[in-house]
Request: fold
Amino acid sequence: MADGLIPQSIIDEVRVRSDLVDIVGDSVSLKKSGREFKACCPFHDEKTASFYVVPDKGFYKCFGCGKSGSVFDFVMEHLGMDFVEAVEHVAGRVGVEVRREHRVRPEDDPDRPYYEIAAFAQSWFREQLIAEDVGAAARSYLENRGIDAATAERFGIGYAPDEWRAFREAALVHGFDEEVMLVSGLLKKSEKSKEPYDGFRGRVMFPIESLGGKVIGFGGRILEGDAPKYINSPETPIYEKGKNLYGLSWAKNTIRLEKCALVVEGYMDAVSLAAAGFENVVAQLGTALTEAQAVRLTRYTTRVVLLFDSDKAGLKATFKNGDILLEAGLRPAVVSLP
Ligand code: ZN
Reply:
């Protein structure tokens, strides 16, 4: 969104010219019902149709889950796009040329502080990993997992030292806003401690990137001790968990070339496979794939190979993912790892 606004007159023109029935009909089998069209809702699971498209008024509504909106809302929700992408997508269908106005100055972008602190954190974690003494244990952990220095660099992997306020101090010196760091999960606050403390401590840090390659969040794996194995960034103004796939910014071109995406469970699996030469790999960010993640993959391929642990939990997750991929129109295959 930061790279430009579409003039309102163009947005209106695209909306007026667009055919909502045509666009919804691409992915939903609509049946005519009087002046409206109806179907089983694409946003929730149902057996009888409660999803309506009203072409005269240019909106859709589901009486089951309550989802409703314009053609742009549908494209955003269904294809996992942001507003500007959705307008461009629909504009392409109706032959309207979209020019972006650059009247939003970067300093006016409300998301800017979140991108800035994420970028700062990524480079700071990176410095800690490289630092001779601080990063030694994390470096040998990565080496033992087959991740050499070059791979770690390519994925921007870093290390959050096992200290209470090392990151906070470094960030404050650089003038970053504490509130933004708290919202980003980089700092935490407890009732006991007056001063916020580092959200990630003693962890190998995996930066999560947007499709455009900006850092939007982190996954941190504990090096030792009995704290939770993984801590992930919370949802923030720039990071929506259900929409992003770890590694997609790096893997998307290879996925297109090879016409196949490998989907794994965690950061380590994705990076290890990439280190072993499988470049078309992404990881889900959560216990199961979401519909928006599956739909996002449809932009690059129709074939998806799920690589998962063959334990009971792994199998259950794999079947669930298979269903979600099928619903999005993808062809899933499963490879289970012993
Ligand atoms: Zn619904």
Notes: The radius of gyration is 22 Å. The longest helix spans residues 112-130. Residues 41, 43-44, 51, 62, 64-65, 67 surround zinc ion (CB under 6 Å).
